[in-house]
Amino acid sequence: MDPAVYWLWLQQAFGYGAQLAEVIGTFGSAKAFYDADEATYRSSAAFGRTRGFSESRLQRFLRKDLSAAKAILESCYDNEISVITPEDERYPAQLLQIPDYPAVLFVRGDLDCLKNKTAVAMIGARSPTRYAFQATQQIAGDLSENDFLIVSGGALGIDAAAHTGALRRNKKTVLVMGCGYFSGYLKENQQLREAVAQHGALVTEYPPAMNPSASSFPLRNRLISALSDAVVIMEAAKQSGTLNTARHAKQQGKPVFVLPGDTDSPAFSGTRALLRDGAKPIFSASDVAFYLGVPMLEHQSSAADKAQPLFSGIDETETLLSKTKPGKKASARKKRTRTPVPSETTTAPVLEPSAPKAAKPLLPDCISESAALVYHILSDGCTLFDEIVLQSSLPVPAVLCALTELELFGAVQKGEGNSYQLCD
I want to staple 228 with a disulfide (CB 3.0 to 4.6 A). Which of 49, 121, 310, 406 is the partner? Predict the structure, then answer.
């Protein structure tokens, strides 16, 4: 019999997120646990200590019913879904470092892309600001070009930006799902998932037909951080579920990085809290590489130009940013004070030009070219961040770095909303 059947049985018997490390450490394998009798179960050091390994579950173990496990395995074979267990050499070694590693992984794609790579998780809000969305695509793409592997959760917003940032450079990425492949959840991102399956790997611990639940995504988050060498939070509000992944990362000893955002925006209140707690700020892929001690490859300016888009005929930024769900969540988003995401049907707010400055602050000779360009744009008056990005044609992280540089020299100050202007 396929050994995977016993691991599937173990998964169904214990449930998801159980502390299997102690169980397997005691019994040696899933089959050995299956073959044990009642006396052996009761005398085990893990009995009563491991969640799911208690008196209330004992009778389930003693029934030795493999029918559900066999049905799941057959369904996976029929649909070309790989079933990977801790006994399989394809099982990611990183997951075995956490006590609640999954008994089974269901995989579509090439999980070997995790090997010999520095993996970085990039996650954040489902309804992000344009600034965070575009910064995510840029940084994810640049990391991919430098042989990093991008890991995320496949949700709308920042997750989608992270995956597409890698895919647009023809690089592989790993998407960790919080449900089964056939659940029908989040059909809006089906095309993205198919692209990842062809250019990376879709991973889940949930059987193909399983629908998401209130606990499935928080449990999924532990796998995102466990598969990664670092976690980057690109945007998170105070109550964001993204912060759950940051907590898992800290428990697992993984570094947490944060993209700084507006100091007065509720959209970044969660990331500000992480910065206060010791998370390191990043503005570019090179910052991530620096903190991880991984050298960046020599930049090849034509790399992005040569990349063929995987979503032919679709503007990923506009499409992915525009995907919102109707109802209460949409109404709640309208109440938030955040940088608006412009589209073809929205009109940017009209800003009255500031009065000409009598004397502009002098800039040192060492100022960067990007900062000098942004300074020139701001010379015409108060300007929105998105307009600076548009006029400069610079990547979002480069604009942010330029503004930070100018602020440090006392040349620029933040205005109302998301606007900037030269200092008097």
Answer: 121
Q: Give a yes or no: residue 340 inside a domain.
A: no
User: Which has the closest alpha carbon to 270: 292, 314, 229, 240?
Assistant: 240
265 and 240 in contact (C-beta within 8 Å)?
no
75 and 125 both lie in a single domain: no
> Is residue 251 situated within a structural domain?
yes
What is the SS3 assignment for 84?
A: strand
Judged by phi (left if over 0) then psi (alpha if -120 to 50, else beta), residue 405 lies in alpha
Reported as a single tens digit per residue, the pLDDT across 345-388 is 333 333 334 444 445 555 655 667 778 888 888 888 888 888 89
DSSP, collapsed to helix, strand or coil, labels residue 118 as: strand
Structure token pair of residue 230: 């670092």
Distance, first Cα to last Cα, the chain: 78
In terms of domains, do 74 and 135 share one? no
If asked whether residues 64 and 117 sit together in one domain, one would say no
Residues 68 and 125 in one domain: no
Residues 27 and 163 in one domain: no
State the CATH number of the domain containing residue 411: 1.10.10.10
For the stretch 376-411, what's the b/e string if a residue is b when 16 or more beta carbons lie within 10 angstroms of its beta carbon? ebbeebbbbbbbbbebbebbbbbbbbbbebbeebeb
Strands 173-176 and 82-84: unpaired
247 and 380 part of one domain: no
Determine contact, residues 90/96, Cβ cutoff 8 Å. Answer: no
* pTM for the predicted model, two decimal places: 0.74
Number of domains comprising the chain? 3
Does residue 417 contact residue 386 with C-beta atoms inside 8 Å? no
Burial letters 96-109, b for 16+ CB under 10 A, else e: eebebbbbbbbbbb
What string of H, E and C letters represents the secondary structure of 285-350?
HHHHHHHHCCCCCCCCCCHHHHCCCCCCCCCHHHHHHHCCCCCHHHHHHHHCCCCCCCCCCCCCCC
pLDDT in tens, 311-326: 333 345 555 565 544 3
Instruction: List, in sequence order, every beta strand (DSSP E) within 53-137.
Output: 82-84, 105-109, 118-124
Report how far Cα 77 is from the mean position of its chain's Cα atoms: 29
pLDDT digits (tens, 9 = 90+) for 196-250: 999 999 999 999 999 998 899 999 999 999 999 999 999 999 888 899 999 999 9
**Is residue 262 included in any domain, yes or no?**
yes
- CB–CB of 232/123 below 8 Å? yes
What region, left, alpha or beta, does residue 144 occupy, with left being phi > 0 and alpha being psi -120 to 50 degrees? Answer: alpha
Domain housing 291:
110-322
